[in-house]
Structure formats: C-alpha cells, structure tokens
Design goal:
single chain; two-stranded antiparallel sheet; 29% helix
Length: 218
C-alpha cells in the first residue's frame, strides 16, 4: 500500500498544462467547474454578460474540442453552450452522467465543496479503470501566507473556500475514497514577486499550489 512518502515532493512546474495536455489529447475528457464568473461578482446588472469559460477549460478545449464541461451555474453553462462549448449543468458531488472518462480534470474546485470525500467517491464512479483524475488546489503552506498573517493577522482565504489540503491530507482522503494518488507536482507559475517567493527555491512545500494525479484503486 502506497504512503504519502512515496510521492515525489521535489518536482515543480510552471504551467499545469504541461502535465494535463497529454492526458486530454484524443481521450474522453471531463472538466469540472468550467464557468468563470469572477468578473460577474462586481455588478449584478452585468452578471450574465461577464460569465465566460474558465481559462483552463478554454486551453483544454483547444487540445480536445469534445471535452465535456460541468458546472453548477446554469446561466453560465447556457452562455458556454451559445459559444459552442460542450457543457452541461450538474453538481459534481451528486451527478450521475451514466458514462466514464479517460481523464477528469478538477482544477481548483475541491476546496470549494461542502463534502470533498463525497466528491472523490463520485469521481471514482465516473473514471474508467485505467483513467486519471487530475486535481489542482491551493497550498495552505504557500510562503506568502506567512506575510499575510504578519500584516493582516490572518491568512488570505478566498470567500468561497470551505477547506484546505496539502499533498499529504489529500493523499489520505483519496485513499479513503477508493482512489490511488500516483504522481504530484508543485505549481510555481512565473517569476513575479521573486523576493516574496524565494523560499520556494529552497523548500518546494512553500509553493502556491500543487497538482496530484489519481487513479482508481481496484
């Protein structure tokens, strides 16, 4: 039985698409949380017009236009369908699509859910026996969080986040959900704020986010 220590904690990437691209090319793919409504929060009157496909979903669809996108936001999904995307409305924790996928991409979604364990169990049902679930999520030990605590007396937390994971706790939850994590990468995008991010050069566990690749444990 694999343990968290079996993962390689010393690899970092700048662009998560370096790993995702070969997993979605010519493969039956499901992308979760595909509506980007960040701009829509500014003004209610402009909410619909400012909803759009997430950057990750757009990049995946350039590689695989048949990728099915899922989101709980019905208005946002309607806009994506009008733009020609293959998308449908569903709750990722409870949906039953009656099909399985080679690759499921869950980019920055697990930290928004009320029941991450239920979500992982449901993703296992939708994953083919040899398929891969890709999870990316913020790292609670990101080095700049310490600066936030010093300055504001609290870490920076997105207003819609319900939980935080690091690779070890997410590894354990996956195992409890019948899934086997088999690979992981720290995500260190760009060279901005070098003087604030320098700890990442010496300890990758200070990276902003991470990616974990998971398969069914049969």
């Amino acid at each position: 039985m694999k343990q968290p220590s079996d993962l390689n904690f010393n690899r970092a990437i700048k662009d998560r698409m370096d790993i995702i691209a070969p997993l979605v090319k010519n493969r039956k793919t499901l992308d979760l949380g595909v509506v980007d409504s960040r701009l829509a929060r500014a003004k209610t009157s402009e909410r619909l017009s400012k909803k759009s496909p997430s950057l990750l979903y757009r990049r995946i669809c350039k590689i695989n236009p048949d990728t099915l996108g899922i989101d709980i936001d019905q208005d946002g999904i309607n806009i994506l369908e009008e733009q020609g995307f293959k998308a449908t409305t569903a709750n990722v924790m409870t949906m039953d699509l009656s099909e399985q996928f080679d690759t499921i991409v869950a980019g920055e979604i697990i930290e928004h859910l009320s029941n991450p364990g239920q979500f992982l169990h449901n993703m296992r049902r939708h994953l083919k026996p040899e398929g891969t679930l890709v999870i990316t999520t913020p790292n609670p030990f990101y080095c700049r969080q310490a600066l936030k605590i010093w300055r504001y007396k609290r870490p920076r937390v997105h207003e819609e986040h319900t939980c935080w994971f690091d690779p070890i706790t997410l590894f354990n939850l996956c195992r409890l959900s019948g899934l086997e994590p088999y690979d992981m990468y720290w995500i260190q995008s760009g060279k901005r704020h070098f003087f604030k991010n320098w700890p990442c050069l010496f300890r990758k566990y200070f990276s902003k986010s991470f990616m974990i690749l998971v398969r069914r444990e049969d």
